[in-house]
């Protein structure tokens, strides 16, 4: 059918296709495909406290937040149950 020419063409495609892909994308992938400001800045990320004082401060902040949310939830439950329909 195709004979030796088809085999030479297929061999050329097997060899040239990866080379063409590597040539197209090249070595400067960061310049072509980087998304600016994709990663958050260090000041925008969570920072794990390591010092004892920092740990206590963070625990107190979490405790205050938990109590605030608890008070808010209890207030909403009291409003909901005190609407006068007997529940």
TrEMBL record:
Entry's transmembrane regions: 6-25
Predominant subcellular localization, coarse grouping: membrane
A Pfam cross-reference name: Pet100
CC terms in the record's Gene Ontology section: mitochondrial inner membrane
Source superkingdom: Eukaryota
UniProt GO molecular function: unfolded protein binding
Subcellular location, record wording: Membrane; Mitochondrion membrane
Segment forming the signal sequence: none
UniProt keyword annotations, A-Z: Coiled coil, Membrane, Mitochondrion, Transit peptide, Transmembrane, Transmembrane helix
Gene Ontology biological process terms from the UniProt entry: mitochondrial respiratory chain complex IV assembly
Keyword set includes GTP-binding: no
Coiled coil spans: 52-79
Membrane topology of the entry: Single-pass membrane protein
Family: Belongs to the PET100 family.
Protein name: Mitochondrial cytochrome c oxidase assembly factor
Organism: Amylocarpus encephaloides
Lineage of the organism: Eukaryota, Fungi, Dikarya, Ascomycota, Pezizomycotina
